[in-house]
Amino acid sequence: MASITQPVAVVTAAEQTHPLGMTVGSFVSVSLDPQLVSVSLHNGSRTLAAALATGRLGISVLGADAAPIGAQFAARGRDRFAGIAWTMQAGLPRLTAAPTWISCRVAQAIPAGDHRIVLAAVQAVEHRPGATLTYRDRTFGTHVPVTRPSTREGTR
Predict the structure, then answer these.
(1) Domain locations along the chain
(2) Residue-wise over 128-147: b if at least 16 C-beta within 10 A, else e?
(3) Pairing relationship of beta strands 86-89 and 28-32 according to DSSP bridges
């Protein structure tokens, strides 16, 4: 599965006022009506536990220049928020550098092996233009558009 390009996002939740978060490559838009997204979180994750306890989670979709942030939130055994600009927004930690922020209500958590697929109802979205960070073949990168012909010659 490493050869499949995935967007990189940091999923956040809070225990009281203590921020929790982790990098995921499993962020997916599921439905437009109603607006639903999903993320897969490890069963032993404190972020998952807090999201299930509070019924809320945040998703900061990282920009193309945020590979160090993606790596930091993927690391174990450290304060993932150390040195990272963030704020509490609607009771959820939000990474201020992320061009896209989504606040969600947990709709369902589906057991899936050693993970839970969290289906979440979107409550608010904020977006700034910019390229999104991706992950493929164990390397951070970004999407490069395929050049499209300027005319549709030869088509009917």
Answers:
(1) 6-142
(2) eeeebbbbeeeebeeeeeee
(3) unpaired
For 116-137, write each residue's pLDDT tens digit.
Answer: 999 999 999 999 998 889 887 7
Integer Cα distance of 73 and 53 in angstroms: 21
Is 9 within 8 Å of 94 (Cβ atoms)? Answer: no
Q: How many alpha carbons fall within 13 Å on the CB side of residue 141?
A: 12
- This prediction has a pTM of 0.88
* Bond before 93 cis per omega within 30 degrees: no
Find all residues with CB under 8 Å of 60, minimum gap 6, and list them. Answer: 9, 10, 12, 21, 94, 95, 98, 100, 101
Q: Is it true that domain 6-142 has CATH number 2.30.110.10?
A: yes
d(CA 21, CA 68): 15
CA neighbor of 120 nearest in space, from 61, 53, 58: 58
